[in-house]
Amino acid sequence: MKKLFIAAFALVAFASASPTYAQNKMVGGAEMYPTKGIIDNAVNSKDHTTLVAAVKAAGLVETLKGKGPFTVFAPTDSAFAALPEGTVTNLMSADNKPLLTSILTYHVVAGKMSAKALWAKAKSSKPTVKTVNGGSLTVKADGEKLYLVDAKGGKSWVTIADVNQSNGVIHVVNAVLMP
């Protein structure tokens, strides 16, 4: 009888849990809430401090707080650290704001593209997506991995897919894409 009561209690507790909470993903040690926007979630990720600083330096905070929807391919801090020494510091200077903006908007696609849509794109006859900066990324699938190829041939793997936001979706990537 006691086991039945515990099982029933657990079932009621599980059933009453918020479905939104159950769908949250962890990114950089922080929960990403689908009821919050891209910027409001990104600032909590310990793996995206460089990206957040770059978005601020480029003046794109208000844009990414907009209605969207946006698909953001979000490079991690380690992705930025893999760039040649001094690159990030150089890009963050006021003189290079146009270049920084171009690189960041190369990581954004207008509209909300789920991983399922990206897989379909990878298998299609036109496996490219147009970025907000006017460039394009090639979407490829390799076994279980989904990756993007930039204009210079650089590859970035999607390490965490479908981090839903109120104004779009984030796919965490392991390399900075270059237009």
| Total tally of structural domains | 1
User: What's the SSE pattern?
Assistant: HHEEHHHEHHHEHEEEEE
Mean pLDDT: 88
What is the CATH-assigned architecture?
A: Roll
Q: Can you offer a commentary on this structure?
A:
With 179 residues, this protein is an alpha+beta fold. The chain has a single domain, classed as FAS1 domain. The chain has helices at residues 2-16, 19-22, 38-42, 49-58, 61-64, 77-81, 87-91, 97-105, 115-122; strands at residues 25-27, 30-32, 70-75, 108-110, 128-130, 136-142, 145-149, 155-165, 168-173. A hairpin with a 5-residue loop joins β5 and β6. The chain starts with a helix and ends in a 6-residue tail after the last strand.
Would you spell out the secondary-structure blueprint of this structure?
Elements: H1 2-16, H2 19-22, E1 25-27, E2 30-32, H3 38-42, H4 49-58, H5 61-64, E3 70-75, H6 77-81, H7 87-91, H8 97-105, E4 108-110, H9 115-122, E5 128-130, E6 136-142, E7 145-149, E8 155-165, E9 168-173
Parallel strand pairs: 3-9
Antiparallel strand pairs: 1-2, 3-4, 5-6, 6-7, 7-8, 8-9
Helix pairs in contact: 4-8
Q: What's a quick, concise take on this entry?
A:
With 179 residues, the protein is α+β, with helices and mostly antiparallel strands.
What distinguishing features does this structure have?
9 strands, FAS1 domain, alpha+beta, 7-stranded mixed beta sheet, disordered N terminus, 179 residues, two-stranded antiparallel sheet, 9 helices
